[in-house]
Fold this sequence. Notes:
The chain is an alpha/beta fold. It has helices at about 25-35, 70-80, 90-95, 100, 115-125, 175-180, 190-200, 215-225, 245-255, 270-275, 280, 290-295, 315-325, 345-350, 380-395, 400-405, 415-435; strands spanning about 1-5, 10-15, 15, 40-45, 60-65, 85-90, 105-110, 130-135, 160-165, 165-170, 185-190, 205-210, 235-240, 255-265, 300-305, 330-335, 440. It folds into two domains: about 1-135, 3-Layer(aba) Sandwich (Rossmann fold); about 150-435, pyruvate-formate lyase- activating enzyme (Alpha-Beta Horseshoe), CATH 3.80.30.20. Strands 4-1-5-6-7-8 form a six-stranded parallel sheet, with helices on both faces. Strand 12 (about 205-210), helix 8 (about 215-225) and strand 13 (about 235-240) form a beta-alpha-beta unit. The structure holds iron/sulfur cluster.
Amino acid sequence: MNLTLIKPNMGRMGDKKYIDEGRMEPLQLGVLAGLTPPEVSVRLIDDRMEAIDYDLATDLVALTVETFTAKRSYQIAGQYRRRGVPVVLGGMHVSLIPEEAKEQADAIVIGDAESVWPEVLRDAKTNRLQPVYHGRFQAKPQAGVMTRRDLFHGKGYLPISLMQFSRGCPHHCHFCASSSYFGARQAVRDVAEVIKEIKSQPRKLIFFVDDNLVADFSAAKELFRALIPLKIKWVSQGSIDMLQDHELMELMVKSGCLGLVIGFESINPESLKGMNKQTNQHLSRAYQEQIEDLRRYGLQTWAAFTIGHDEDTPQSIAELCEFAIGSKFTFAAFNILMPYPATTLYDQLAKQERLLYQGKWWIHPDYRFNHAAFLPKLMSPEELTQAGFLARQRFNSPLSILRRALEPRTNLRSVYRLFTYLIYNPLFRREVYKKQDMTLGVSDED
Ligand code: SF4
């Protein structure tokens, strides 16, 4: 049996396919391939940089679907199904809105794939695919499963290996799709298996793709202790309440952490309350102490902000950008709040009749990337879109890159740190312009 796994692209600019500057390995598909019995031959196609030959013989196609790639995923699924090849869709978007995904595939997998994937393959082999498979939440994710990294070779990914220690997060920020998907709970892998996986590959730079690596302090400490002897460098994502535990932070640094993506979200306490960002609420005084602590630990911070909260205005978003530049963050994201399906934010906005694009921005033909998909309270959607673009533009301007570089305890800490800073900042600057206004979906007729 031949199985084709596809990582879909997001969209296009005019007639040209959008090509992500920072292409990372599609970890989920590597794990799915690891779950696949050896008698099944697996091929990986990364639609972000490879053309899909729909006529190449295959018995089954599986795609991992995120909300931003839903439209493209459905287009690819349609192409295969018209040729009589069965298609299975899985991933977060499918679980958030299964009734939509079901229409576009022969089968969908809701939830974690581990418990149902062998059954899907068996059914596909005997032409008896069921429309829906419900995967059980895995208390020990990826148990006994090694990621098939051989499938990534030669594809041109960034030289950083992706790993996962935990799935989900116990918090319930209203905008967070991951929290809805996992039901505000977290499951951690066996530490010994994670260490084995790191040792099984040659790279010394690891990205833990966890939503919140430090959600469970004691589990994170166990991992960090085990990482210390490996002498690797790593990055991940974590919530700012980690700074309350000094031991956790010391172990984090000792184990090779270079920095984390941290959801600062807003500097307005009212907005933090409104989005139910519990990890930040008691830390909200413009984060001065926390930023100082992060510098003391020598961590390079990627500050993630969400914009478009009910208290936000174009002026407050411009101030937020100045705050980020003044804080000399290594990187920052100014993400317009997106009403992901099945989130509390989505339901709130739907109730208030504030959703645009008929509530389905991810498949709407008029939606453009980085545009507001709802009616903000104190500005128009166009003003929010523009304020977000200006913040990204200003934060990533050459002058800001220079100014932020001059932070002795983080970006100037070592030649390696400065090198990373100088490689990635221009890359993100290019992305600001490349992505803005992108159309979702890539028609194969283009
Ligand atoms: S802390 Fe982060 S991962 Fe957890 S629910 Fe909030 S936004 Fe999601």
